[in-house]
Amino acid sequence: MRMIPFIILMQLFSLQARATPEIDTLCQEIDLEVNALKWKLPSCNKLAEWKSLGQSVKGRPLIYAEFGNPESKNTTLIFSMVHGDEITPLFIGLKLADWLKQQPVMLKTHRIIVAPLVNPDSFFSTPRTRVNARGVDVNRNLGTLDWKSKALQAWKTQFKSDKRRFPGNEPDSEPETIFQKDLIKLTNPSKIMSVHSPLNHLDYDGPTTLSLWRFPKDYVEECIRLSQKVKAKSTGYFIGSLGNYAGTERGIPTFTMELPTANPKKAWDYWLIFKAGIYTVIQHGVPRVVTH
Ligand SMILES: [Zn+2]
Known about the structure:
The chain is α/β, with parallel strands linked by helices. It has helices at 6-17, 21-36, 44-47, 88-100, 104-109, 120-124, 147-157, 175-187, 217-229, 242-249, 267-283; strands spanning 51-55, 61-68, 75-80, 111-115, 191-196, 201-205, 254-258. It has one domain: Zn peptidases (Aminopeptidase, 3-Layer(aba) Sandwich), CATH 3.40.630.10. The chain is built from 11 helices and 7 strands. Strands 1-2-4-3-5-7-6 form a 7-stranded mixed sheet. Helix 4 (88-100) packs across helix 11 (267-283). The radius of gyration is 19 Å and the shape is globular. Bound molecules: zinc ion. Residues 82-83, 86, 196 line the site of zinc ion. Zinc ion (ZN) binds next to loops.
C-alpha cells in the first residue's frame, strides 16, 4: 500500500470537516456575543454546517446553511441581521437553525436555507450600526430597476440624507448586498423571509392582483393566500430593498418580519411568538414560476 503523505491526509481531513478557519473564527465571535447577551444557544459551530458565499467589507465570511431535502421544490430562504443594531433577529436566525435540525418529518419534504448574519461587520462594531462598514444600508443598495434614476434623490428628499439609510453611490456596490443576490440565485427560493426589528409588523412584497399581467393567476392567488395566512401587509415601497428586488421585481413572495424591539432579553419570547408564522411560511407550498 502506498503511503499517503501526512500533509495530504491533513488536507483531506480539513475538507471533510467543511468549516473553514474563517467560519470558525466568526463562530467564536458569535459565541462571545451570544454569551454576553445571555442567550442560551448551542455554540455556533454545532448549530449547522455553515458554508460561506463571499466576505463582508472587513473580510468576515458571509454564512448560510441548508436544511432538509435538496430535491424539494418548496424552498424557503431566510435572512436575518441585515441591520446589525437590531440584535433580536440574530437570536431568531440561530435558534431557527437549532430548531430545524429537530424537525425530521418536515425536513423530508421541505428545503430551508438560513443566513443568520447577513451584515456581520455592523453587528460586531462598537457601537453596533445599521449600515455596513462603508456606511451603506444594504437593504437599500440592491440594484432595483429604479435605483439609478431615483435612489440617491429619494434618500436626499424623502429621508433627508439620513446616514442610517444611505443607499450607496452605486447599486450592488456592497458585498453584503451581493451576498443576498447570490444566495437567491444559488438556491432559487420559492419564498423569502428577512427578519428585522423593531417595527412590529409583517410586510409582504410579491405578486398581487395588480401583477396579474406578469404572473399566472393561480400563482398570484397562492402568494396572496400565503400572505393572508400570516396576516402580512404591504406597508411601503423602498428603492433598493430586498422586498422590492425579490418580491416586486422577481415575483418571489418576500416577507419582512419586524420583531417588536431590539431588546435581547425579549429574544426568546419573540421566538415563541413568531415561530408559528415562520413555520407557516416554510410549510406553505408556492409553485416556482419565476426566472431570475
Ligand atoms: Zn432592519
